[in-house]
Amino acid sequence: MADLGERRLIEAIKGCYDYEWEDDDAASIPAGRAYTLITTDSISRSSHMPKGAGWDKVGYFFAALNLSDIAAMGGRPEYFMSALTLPAETKVSELRSLEKGIGRCLGKYGVKVIGGDLKQGAEMCMTGIAIGTVQKDRILRRRGAKEGDLVCLTGKLGRNGAAYRMWKETGNKKWGEMMLCIEPRVKEGIAISQCGASSAIDLSDGLFAALWQLGKSSGRGFEIEYSRIPIDSLALETRDRLGIGIEDMAFEFGGEYELLFTISPRRLPMLEKAAGRAGFGFSIIGEVKGSAVVLRRDGKAETVRSRGYEHFRK
Amino acid sequence: MADLGERRLIEAIKGCYDYEWEDDDAASIPAGRAYTLITTDSISRSSHMPKGAGWDKVGYFFAALNLSDIAAMGGRPEYFMSALTLPAETKVSELRSLEKGIGRCLGKYGVKVIGGDLKQGAEMCMTGIAIGTVQKDRILRRRGAKEGDLVCLTGKLGRNGAAYRMWKETGNKKWGEMMLCIEPRVKEGIAISQCGASSAIDLSDGLFAALWQLGKSSGRGFEIEYSRIPIDSLALETRDRLGIGIEDMAFEFGGEYELLFTISPRRLPMLEKAAGRAGFGFSIIGEVKGSAVVLRRDGKAETVRSRGYEHFRK
């Protein structure tokens, strides 16, 4: 499977069963005037856990990345379940530390644990399930971006990618743990959806992947202004120190959980007020335009062909 | 962790977060006059996949064991998601065969796939999530068994445990695949709940574990008549051929998915009619009585201390 890539693999297996599958961050099941949102995300030791990282940090990361998918749909996360497969030699203190990290994240967002599964296996592998709710007319999907909408982003990019590079360079677990430092953008997602954004996605596979996905689902293209993409200071330092391109850390690296969304310009004043009240910032990085993803940089326009990070790609 | 056992481990981690956790086969979230039921169950190569077993068979088993938890609550399964962590060397044909097996089971029970996750990892590890629904006043929980209720069982016991023993003995993959042959008792669960059963659980960890769990949740004991427990012919043959005790294969072996339930004797005629209409049989194996699990055999009564199969127990 190593040369097909995750997204083509998923297309290849859809024919195997009856499905009802909006290509969104979470599944949405009608429930009266709301949707119940359900999402699942897994991490395994070999793919996602930097060696030496504290179990508590891993737990927080694990819960946060699941809540992020609910946030990207404009939903309020309510419940959480986890299915843990752990080697027999795992220590009880490690398990408790992991669960405390999970609990720290869930507590922050008012989410309750309603069940789970605990099994023995050769490699540590943890699957989270987050359940949330959103009003039907406020749901944020990947489809919905309209010509002329603004393309916006919460937060800054490149911190996690830079931490990964620093960790690879130095082996210092401090950087490994920084890779795991993420926050689900829950209040941001709710405010954005209340203001009537037209589409949204989280950046779990990086900015380019998110743009490609939003564009594909909405049948639109984007014109992005390079100079408007906010870059984290650690990425700038790491570029200077290790000579690694900003693109690599900030645009193509999976493992960041900011929200990318589109919104009509006439809704901007409402969004600015809502963001002020909720206490978060966002950047306007471009516009919905045409059918390709175009990056404008130093007056030149280049078409982005990268689809960002994918599992099962060499 | 290897000496604590799964159930004590779960108790040990509950303090780590805010939880709302009925000790049932699936979590239940109020949704108007119904409950949305959600459950998760994982399998990994080292713990659950007999070497040489066809991927299609594994897929069917994987879906079935998740639907079983919905069935045990009296629910109708509606949706399914899977989070697959697979090694990079997995073949696309293997993945498709796995998904076809999943699809075969879901198709049989009218269940739709609404999303999932696909990741790369060192060991194959698959987590399923089944979502279903049940009327609020028809939900079957583990608590609810009342003194004097009948203890009943769908199907026969010991086939999967016997297949495991034969597989260990012969190495023939035919037996390995037979271990995976299970059916979620969906129509049975619905009929049982419509007839007003007082409690139910599936036999995923074996009969003794199920009795122990029902008893603990209901605060009751059981008197079980050994001669009334229906034993599969393969278990009888395997006892004669390999000299393995029936208890080992039929009472203590996890991996069977019949339903154990309790029901008031005055509801028995209704249940018999409903079972006839739905086309399934069940056995009355004992009575809710006292506070211990007692097995009556050849006129003698013995208290059962075994709690059946548990992960993380040597």
Description:
Two copies of one chain form a homodimer. The first copy, chain A, is α+β, with helices and mostly antiparallel strands and 314 residues long. Chain A has two domains: 28-137, 2-Layer Sandwich (60s Ribosomal Protein L30, Chain: A), CATH 3.30.1330.10; 140-303, Phosphoribosyl-aminoimidazole Synthetase, Chain A, domain 2. Chain A has eleven helices and twelve strands. In chain A, helix 3 runs parallel beside helix 7 (186-194). The first copy, chain A, starts with 5 loop residues before the first helix and ends in an 11-residue tail after the last strand. The model of chain A has no long low-confidence stretch (mean pLDDT 92).
Question: Secondary-structure element sequence of chain A?
Answer: HEEHHEHEEEHHHEHEHHEHEEE
Q: What's the number of structural domains of chain A?
A: 2
What sort of overall outline of chain A do the alpha carbons produce when their principal axes are compared?
A: globular
Which structural category fits the helices and strands of chain A? alpha+beta
Largest sheet geometry of chain A? 7 strands, mixed
Number of strands of chain A: 12
Largest interface: A-B, 69 and 69 residues
Poorly predicted tracts of residues of chain A = none
- End-to-end C-alpha gap of chain A: 10 Å
Classify the helix fraction of chain A into a percent range.
25-40%
Enter the CATH topology name of the largest domain in chain A.
Answer: Phosphoribosyl-aminoimidazole Synthetase, Chain A, domain 2
CATH class identity of the largest domain in chain A: Alpha Beta
The order of strands across the largest sheet of chain A is 7-9-6-10-8-11-12
How would you classify the quaternary structure?
A: homodimer
Compute the CA-based radius of gyration of chain A.
19 Å
